[in-house]
Predict the 3D structure of the following.
Amino acid sequence: MNLNILAYIIYLVITTFIIVKVGKICYQNGNIYVAQLIPYHAELCQKTNQILLVGYYLLNIGYCAMTLICWAKIITLHQLIEVIAYKSAIIIAVIAIMHYMNIFILTKYIQKLI
């Protein structure tokens, strides 16, 4: 089997698991922030939070899929592990940056309302 195909499969499984797990955690805990933005409309808050979750999934899984086109040919097992670790670390860093930017923006927006 071609090592690039194996690397793609492993990479997509790892990153999809991370993206789905983080998305579920943010979705479950995000209602508090959305409820502060839209008080007294619980159903609208829930739907807004669902839209944010779908957008998060589409953006991150799409980004993961897009990064597959720029991989070099993988020849050795050592290189396979190295590339998967490096690419997965980039995705984790992007997710962390996006999460903290969202919290910062929501916090600043809520402070303006108060």
Observations:
- The radius of gyration is 18 Å.
- The chain has a mean pLDDT of 87.
- Residues 77-113 form the longest helix (37 residues).
- Residues 3 and 74 are 6 Å apart (CA to CA).
